[in-house]
Amino acid sequence: QVQLVESGGGLVQPGGSLRLSCAASGIRFSIYDMGWYRQAPGKQRELVATITSSQSTNYADSVKGRFTISRDNAKNTVYLQMNMLKPDDTAVYYCNAAATVWGKGQDYWGQGTQVTVSS
Hints:
55% strand, 119 residues
């Protein structure tokens, strides 16, 4: 059974920092591209950052220079370090794992963790 479990969300003041973690189980983590997405109330889910199995990273323009995605294959975990947080970063943050396994696309999501940026 595949599980992606996010943690690290919470309430933080503008300008503060949070680090999100996503622990994966039930998949061969090292071959999966991992990503963080977010969904604010009344808005569509959007890409925040991705990191491929070969450690290439990609960021939404809105978070470049503030957020850093990383992965630890030994711990089956992907991280999102979020600095200089803004109220616009308030959303539910979701972890995603994607890969093609035996010619079939595999795509998994976590349950999400709430991040609220407010004074």
